[in-house]
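Dear colleague,

Thank you for sharing your sequence with our group. We've completed the structure prediction you requested, and as agreed, I am returning the results in plain text so they can be pasted directly into your records. Please verify that the sequence below matches your submission; if there's any discrepancy, let me know and we will rerun it promptly.
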Amino acid sequence: MSEQRLRAVRDRVRPFPDFPEPGVLFRDISPLLKDPVAFRTLIDLLEDHLRASFPKIDFVAGLDSRGFLIGPPLAQRLGIGFVPIRKKGKLPGPTESVSYSLEYGKAELEIQSDAVEPGQKVVIVDDLLATGGTMCAACELLKRLKAEILECLVIIELKALKGSEKLNSIPFYSLLQYD
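Please find the predicted structure tokens below.
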């Protein structure tokens, strides 16, 4: 991976101190999404990583909501489908759901019960990994459907929050890391 391409992505991540609450440094990907060259570079880097790491992937699963911004173009590049993992109550038909803890309460995620077949190979994508609660919940949903989770993939990892440790034996990859 070229340092120049990685820098083009990193330079479009904007820090916002004290958002959403005092003491938090928010990493905003909006400038990255607004810049078509930087966004293409992001998808190029993620595609290169996945092609080099996995000979066969059946689906990219994206987490509500920013995983929906990265997942579909990445899946299209790979020539595979995209599966949404949504907040509770947003998907029609039979679903699997899981409740998980957030820093400030509880939340629920859902996936359609027929989203993947047993044994299908899935990569889960999101914009950021912080404490790992949402990503762990997504892994639980895919495990219930008996999917093979190849990797959890994010643009940004907040290393100080140790979210990747909660993923246990599931492979994890982040493009950018911040303390």
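Summary note from our side: The first strand starts at residue 14 and ends at 17.

Kind regards,
the structure core
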